[in-house]
């Protein structure tokens, strides 16, 4: 049986919800959404279908599912370990210290844990930045978890976390060749619910020659590319985006992650070449050593960014916190208390409606899947969420977008649908919490392998 055979093939008709469509032709209005055959069949002010299961949307908002364009899912069972860690402490404790001890079963558990947390909080698509490619079996376990969870996933094949220091900051090692097997045998279908991208190190984390060879490999395999750039003082010195532009390698198939210390000129180069960006605003304000969120500087350069969680070892795995962190840092800019790169006049600002767009349609564009998700557009895949506006923390919901951004949390997410399949209903995630016992067992095994004292 195909992984994508629908398990819930009901026709669903949501009636009377406030629709935040993220489709500029449709706008926002109170209306109905019909889901059939895994797609958004119809949307309007009065939709009828005698065969559909009707869901009362009164007192709710319906919008596209959130799209997280950068999360290291393999760390899902290690969540909340170090909210006060610096970037160097995170690298030492997780990537270098624990990453080498991961077995394929730990990757599967971590990915599944992260996926379920994502779905619980209304994230229907995750771009899984998988730098745990310690073996082909590790990558296969990561991919299998995405199929199992029901989430839409872009699996970004990365490098190993064995000999982690040999794979970053000037590395002369080429991207693992197993990406060819995955492309040809495991994820060849770019229209499937789980697809393949390439997580490359670029000239900031590898030598220029290796960066070029890796990029050419990804393009030979017809894969979109993600790349971490602008990482603290090192990123400011390396200027990876500039190097790519000067080498003729900067193109629209690239998503640049963080960009914290990328220069304004580099951000304009990114925009001029049609590339996209992912801001991990919560992680960037929590973790010293990266720099500050580049959201406003990206807007000034002509780039509407997407948003991402990054790692749950540091921050919560939901997009509500990411949106609020971006907004909080913007207010520091407005108050004149931001970092030095943001102390320039007339930086453009954004509002709650913009943040919802960053978390949905802009995420779809960054992943190259905006033709099938990211907005409530008839014909697109039915990836949508319903948020209860009649919960105490959101009432009276005077401005719907502002209420969701300022006050929303996972408990307000009442319904989650991915490709027409209901994965959360009446506020309850299907499958319950049984899996999270496996996450605890995986954490304990990893701690023992690394010689770390187990929690009391």
TrEMBL record:
Keyword Phosphoprotein belongs to the record: no
Domain Amidohydrolase-related: 62-422
MF terms (GO), sorted A to Z: hydrolase activity, acting on carbon-nitrogen (but not peptide) bonds
Keywords, comma-separated and alphabetical: Hydrolase
Pfam families noted in UniProt: Amidohydro_1
NCBIfam families named in the record: PRK08204.1 (NF006056)
Identification of the protein by name: Amidohydrolase family protein
Source organism: Streptomyces daliensis
